[in-house]
Write a structure and sequence with these properties.
By secondary structure, the chain is mainly beta. Among the domains are: 2-50 and 732-762, no CATH class; 73-165, Nuclear Transport Factor 2, Chain: A, CATH 3.10.450; 183-310, Nuclear Transport Factor 2, Chain: A (Roll). Strands 20, 21, 22, 23, 24, 29, 30, 32, 33, 36, 37, 38 and 39 form a 13-stranded antiparallel β-sheet that branches. Strands 14, 15, 16, 17, 18, 19, 28, 31, 34 and 35 form a 10-stranded antiparallel β-sheet that branches. Strands 8, 9, 10, 11, 12 and 13 form a 6-stranded antiparallel β-sheet that branches. Mean pLDDT is 89; it is low at 1-45 and 778-801. This is Amine oxidase. InterPro entries: Cu_amine_oxidase, Cu_amine_oxidase_C, Cu_amine_oxidase_C_sf, Cu_amine_oxidase_N-reg, Cu_amine_oxidase_N2, DUF1965.
């Protein structure tokens, strides 16, 4: 209670009209001088405030060229031209291509092998040769497929060769069948199906789907496809079209009518309808469904129809004072981090790193160092899974593997002042599609912010010490179908890194009929279809070098007898320490009650107290799930990475990723089978790689309409890595001494508090400057087609994609 009185006294002093303490000095304000000790400052009368001014030039230069940076426009153009000269590929320019032509699907950087990159990064060797990863769609065949090649070294010269790219894939070949090669024919087939039941749909919903401009309903199928020896099966469901602009709010407008189809082969005349499902009943033929429908007593159910309830417009009673300008963040002396835009190299408060970018997984971080010491070689997204459950056939089979959509491809421009602070620094990203380089301007933002709570704080009887919690964030947002993924990499003054994913968008709902066990009823005819989100990341840590081990530390209950306990057993707890030393033991789940931590250490590098220097991986949020469904028929052999929270493996150049976007094309025959990685190798003092999963079990309720939100986060946290908390080095802290109910001294450790006048125009969002895509043709035509997304189709496409 006595301490509380002192706290209130200090707060009263701080909150008084003399908040501008006599000991604060600001370089923006005239007439201040410091006491001899430098940290303690006296007040003089303040002159008129000056306008806040700072040098906007950033002279940050990367110490090395970014060997992970995306191919530039000239490199892509040269590779594209080179490919068209390879007669064995039999390529057709994208603008002229039909579904029976061979085309270029992908040209991007083939990330250098770590074994080649490390000598360069360590200053012990030259930069590795630069190669392109190329994907070719071979569709001039009855069995179309996509195959990867490597082209290099770059720049293109007489040394440049085209070679199959197989070493990345434990299938043995970087090649996968395409079962969705004839998209236009499929859409026409869907329309034919819709026309065959037009009288029924008109009676049910006063709408039809026949592939006409006045259609008011459409069909959409699930993924992945169910592939058999002579069959390629999918279920289609009918959905209401939204009013006005077509967008993904259609995913909350299911109509409950399903049809099962077989689209095996490339001859549409051989495709067939295998049955219909409606209101808990399955009908083997269209004729059987029609007969039942027009029979007495057939139960017809209502429709889900678009309205204000599903639209992203302001709704509800106005809030008091909500018309006032919301709080905004300012940087009165300019940004406190450095950026080499050309090399995509960043420095902030002891951290440094390079940014890479791929079409399938978006941004990746490389060579992350803290105080000059590498702690992470690579950190980036691998895959995002949404696995649904339902008693209806379509939702029951849905298991979206979203990298096929391309997280980089849909990493659109960020909205200033809303997606990121207005004064954030923005970077562009580019990717290849249809022989164009398509640039998304301002699609990465960088900013530092005050968390709004202390990082550290302690109060005694006459002092209070507080350190600001300042965080540097790298953010991108990928709009994948009905969900937007907000990806954050956050860096903290104590040397920690947080990897955070926030999801927002429209749920993919089920039709409410008999689905009480699979979701809440959220409207008359709508169920919030339950599903798991599992989002996989690769984390290649190098702690005190590449020879690492995984330390397991568990808090366990115990009964102990001590010399001082008079022979009595004492109920207490203690630490159990061991090492995960073999891949047979390295599929891991978080322990109940958060009792276990896993830390990457080097057994040969202890601190002066004999403890291992390390970085531990630990959930920040409670929601870091793995997949509930075991042995999923929808995922088959392509979901091995989603069955546990954490995996540890011996790193290999031939196992750079846990999965591939191509896996979605045939989940039963994946190009990368993650389970094959676990072949019993030692994890003792090896170059380790971790894969961890973020995510959540999502059971949507009424608050998820019209848009849902969710968050999951993982921490990469120093453990005995430093001899003290490195945040003590920051000047952004204060120590107040107070006596007799008022503050008598303030030590600000060389920091300053701005009193200059800030022009708020500098943080006004430039919404009129929103650019969207920038398209540069690469060979030799301009195409406006969307890039290849073979299993994400219906009768509509996402605007802007």
């Amino acid at each position: 209670m006595q301490l509380a009185v002192y706290f209130l006294a200090a707060a009263a002093a701080i909150g008084s009209s003399t908040f501008a303490f006599p000991w604060f000095r600001d370089p923006c304000a005239a007439g201040f001088a410091s006491l001899p000790h430098g940290n303690r400052q006296n007040r003089k009368e303040d002159a008129s405030p000056e306008i806040c001014q700072y040098d906007k030039e950033d002279n940050t230069k990367a110490p090395l060229k970014n060997i992970f940076s995306a191919l530039d426009g000239n490199e892509i153009a040269a590779v594209t031209s080179f490919l068209h000269k390879q007669r064995e590929l039999n390529l057709t320019a994208a603008v002229k291509a039909t579904s029976w032509d061979n085309t270029i699907d992908l040209v991007e950087l083939l990330q250098p092998n770590k074994s080649d990159a490390l000598p360069y990064l360590n200053g012990d060797g030259p930069a590795p040769d630069r190669y392109a990863r190329v994907g070719i769609q071979f569709k001039a065949t009855e069995e179309p497929y996509i195959q990867d090649y490597m082209v290099g070294p770059l720049p293109v010269s007489h040394r440049t060769k085209l070679q199959p790219l197989n070493y990345l894939y434990n299938k043995g070949v970087g090649k996968q069948r395409i079962y969705h090669a004839d998209i236009n024919e499929e859409v026409a087939f869907y329309a034919k199906i819709g026309a065959s039941v037009a009288d029924i749909t008109l009676d049910l919903w006063n709408g039809t789907f026949m592939g006409l401009p006045n259609d008011t309903v459409f069909v959409k199928g699930f993924e992945p496809l169910q592939i058999g020896n002579q069959s390629v099966i999918t279920w289609l469901q009918f959905w209401s079209y939204p009013i006005g602009t077509i967008d993904d709010r259609a995913s909350v407008l299911p109509l409950g009518l399903h049809t099962k189809i077989n689209i095996a082969g490339r001859d549409p005349s051989k495709w067939s309808v295998l049955g219909w499902y409606y209101n808990g009943n399955f009908y083997k033929t269209t004729e059987a469904f029609r007969k039942a429908y027009f029979s007495p007593g057939f139960q017809k159910r209502g429709a889900n129809v678009d309205g204000l309830w599903a639209q992203l417009m302001r709704d509800g009673e106005p809030r008091p004072r909500d018309t006032l300008v919301a709080p905004v963040q300012v940087q009165p002396q300019g940004r406190r981090f450095g950026v080499d835009v050309k090399e995509k190299y960043i420095e902030w408060m002891g951290f440094s790193l390079y940014i890479g970018f791929t079409r399938d997984t978006g941004i990746r971080l490389f060579d992350v160092r803290y105080n000059g010491e590498r702690i992470v070689y690579e950190l980036g997204l691998e895959e995002a899974l949404s696995h649904y459950a339902s008693d209806e056939p379509m939702q029951s089979g849905v298991a979206f593997l979203d990298s096929l959509e391309g997280f980089g491809r849909v990493s659109y421009e960020l909205v200033q002042g809303y997606d990121c602070p207005s004064d954030a620094t923005f970077l562009n990203t580019s990717y290849f599609t249809n022989e164009e380089t398509r640039t998304h301007a301002n699609s990465i933002c960088l900013f530092e912010m005050d968390s709004g709570h202390p990082l550290q704080r302690y109060a005694s009887s006459n002092t209070v010490s507080v350190t600001k919690s300042l965080v540097f964030t790298i953010r991108s947002i990928s709009a994948v179908g009905n969900y937007d993924f907000i990806f954050d990499y956050e860096f903290f003054l104590d040397g920690s890194i947080h990897v955070t994913v926030r999801l927002s968008g429209y749920i993919q709902a089920s039709y409410w009929a008999h689905s009480g066990d699979y979701g809440f009823r959220i409207r008359d005819n709508l169920s919030g279809s339950m599903h798991d989100h599992v989002i996989s990341y690769k984390l290649d840590m190098d702690v005190n070098g590449t020879a690492n081990s995984l330390l397991k530390t568990t808090v366990v209950p115990t009964r102990e007898r001590y010399p001082w306990s008079d022979g009595e057993l004492v109920n207490t707890m203690k630490l159990e320490k061991s090492f995960i030393d073999n891949e047979r033991l390295s599929k891991l789940n978080w322990a109940p009650n958060s009792a276990t931590t896993y830390t990457v250490v080097n057994k040969d590098a202890k601190n002066i107290y004999g403890e291992y220097r390390g970085y531990r991986v630990s959930p920040v949020t409670s929601s870091t799930t793995y997949l509930t469904v075991q042995n999923s028929e929808s995922l088959k052999r392509s979901g091995g990475w989603a069955t546990h929270n954490l995996y540890a493996l011996k790193r290999k150049d031939t196992e750079p990723h846990s999965t591939s976007s191509y896996n979605n094309l045939d989940v039963g025959d994946p190009v990368i089978d993650f389970n094959k990685f676990f072949d019993g190798e030692s994890l003792d003092q090896e170059d380790l790689v971790l894969y961890f999963n973020l995510g959540m079990h999502h059971i949507p309720d009424t608050s998820d309409l019209p848009n849902t939100t969710a968050v999951s986060s993982m921490g990469i946290i120093p453990q005995n890595f430093h001899l003290e908390n490195p945040s003590r080095a920051t000047r952004q802290q204060i120590r107040l001494t107070f006596e007799e109910g008022k503050a008598s001294q303030a030590e600000i450790f060389g920091s300053s508090h701005a009193t200059c006048t800030f022009d708020m125009k500098n943080v006004k969002p430039n919404l009129a400057g929103y650019k969207g895509d920038i398209v540069v043709p690469k060979f030799p035509f301009l195409s406006t087609n969307v890039s290849f997304a073979p299993t994400r189709l219906g009768s509509q496409t996402r605007p802007g994609s």
